[in-house]
Amino acid sequence: MTLFRTIALLAAALATMATDAFASDSRPAKQAFGAMTLGSAQSSEPLGFYARGCQAGAVQLPYDGPNWQVMRLERNRRWGQPELISFIQQFSRDAASRDGWPGLLIGDMSQPRGGPMVNGHASHQIGLDVDIWLSPMPRQRLTGQQREQLAAVSMLKKGAFLTIDNDAWSAGQARLIMRAASYPQVQRIFVNPAIKKKLCETWTGDRSFMGKVRPMGGHDSHFHVRLFCPPGAANCRAQPDIQPGDGCGKDLDGWFVRRPAKPPASPTKPPPKPRVVTVGDLPQACQAVLAAPAKRSDDNMGLPFAPLASADSSEGTPITALASYQENVSGPAMAVAAPPSPPPVASASEIAPPAAAAAAWIALPDKVPTPRPRPVN
User: Fold this and answer.
1) Domain containing 132: what range?
2) Is there a contact between 148 and 346 (Cβ–Cβ < 8 Å)?
3) pLDDT for position 90
4) 372 part of a folded domain
């Protein structure tokens, strides 16, 4: 056996051992990635698929921007690829200046290093997904406690089957969704089937992006924006293209067919427990993401933006009710610069509005519901 052949066989054996080591990493992926509190000190890159992957070199979206505020800060899910951060900043500016939308309330993006989440989402794993509330942003900065407790407003009529509540829905929400769909980097937008139907029936503007708006269960109080894999992201697995058409008509009708509930079958044996997704099930590069050192804290505050003059938002001042957005809004919301630290926690008395505003105030639930897992569409 020649020396060259010996070296080749040894290299092949080492590669096989390395592959086996990656595949044998049996750590539950949800717990491993959920334990990460900061992004990795790596070049930014989405790795894998939206529902089976992770992200390297993630960037944090600042708590506040000129036209957005981040909700549910305790979840630590305001991380994404630079392309997602840039999209949110651009979208928030355009929605304010061109559509008169008061500002975006940002829900979940991704975890600091992406990966599966312990609860709430099947996707959002590679830093290219973001949930945006359909409630407009209030004009004053929310406290940390308000961001945890304020409930997003459903656009559906309570007690009715997939029916829009016209007291909550307005042309403003329609413009917001269709504005988001118009960007070339946006691949899909997930909304409740009733919202998709409403857009199909009432939207009179440019309908060439309507096909990007996809019906999915849930998504009645927010919409989910998904970006394409960025150019040059060789390790990002793309989702299949959307079929031609606007997704209205027959493509949508099946969601509105009531089917009689079938009686539950009597199982002869307990159903098998779902298999736990392990770190070894993810792309091999995700192990390097977990092992990488963390970025410095000052590297994690998001891409720069140009804050406008800060508005007076004294703590404890009752905020403008989220449900009070009217069609005659003519300009952007009051600008708030990014704070250097998380918003302070307010007392219950500070959150409560005065009696005159109680009717318009969105009630705080005793328990904030956790979003249910969502399928990939």
Assistant:
1) 19-139+153-238+281-293
2) no
3) 97
4) no
